Amino acid sequence: PGKKVLIVFAHQEPKSFNGSLLKIAVEELTKQGCSVTVSDLYAMEFEPRATRNDIVGGLHNSETFNYGVETWEAYKRGGLSKDLVEEQKKVQEADLLIFQFPLFWFNMPAILKGWMDRVLVQGFAYDLSKAYDGGLLQDKLSLFSFTTGGSQEMYSKEGIGGDIRYVLWPMQHGVMHFCGVKVLEPHICYAPENVSEGKRKEMLTAWTQRLKTLWKEEPIDCSPEWYFK
């Protein structure tokens, strides 16, 4: 109780299955006494492109633009654009980050990838000497909750898509663990569009049940073995 949760939601339609998963998370976590903030990226018309508009004021090097260097310098002097400062503040305050989205092409939707690209800048989320277990966002948890188009069989080691964990490597390990954030087991709803109404209800119930004991869960072992063994 009293925990702060940020849910970053990347779906165009609130009445979608992803929208239902979001609604359940907000209701269940609020009921537990958590304070829940939602960044609804499509509704916010969040800008996914990393451009020089992210820097307010003069550039560190006006000759050649280097996004990584410029945002790092801007972060240090408080010169990042307002939308980034707002998202960073939400991340800073959160004990848990939940990412809710449909899987697009074995990856997160562009708008969510853009959120990662722009919000998790050097100096805020990591530093060259402070990454992975030393990342700057330690003592936070993250959870990737997403839907797929393909079935669970397709995303198995023997399936055409390969193990779903291969897909999770760049997201969970390459982004969250890199920034020092601990990672909970992902929550995956396989092919909700291709199953019966009853099965969809079961999926929603399973999410509700999981959220009830979420704070008792141990993070996964953030090592290549978890993904590839």
UniProtKB/TrEMBL annotation:
InterPro entries from the UniProt entry: Flavodoxin_fold (IPR003680), Flavoprotein-like_sf (IPR029039), NAD(P)H_dehydrogenase_qn (IPR051545)
Keywords of the record: Cytoplasm, FAD, Flavoprotein, Metal-binding, Oxidoreductase, Phosphoprotein, Zinc
Domain of life: Eukaryota
Start and end residues of each Flavodoxin-like fold domain: 3-211
Function per UniProt: The enzyme apparently serves as a quinone reductase in connection with conjugation reactions of hydroquinones involved in detoxification pathways as well as in biosynthetic processes such as the vitamin K-dependent gamma-carboxylation of glutamate residues in prothrombin synthesis.
Family under the similarity heading: Belongs to the NAD(P)H dehydrogenase (quinone) family.
The name this protein goes by in its record: Ribosyldihydronicotinamide dehydrogenase [quinone]
Organism this protein belongs to: Anthoscopus minutus (Southern penduline-tit)
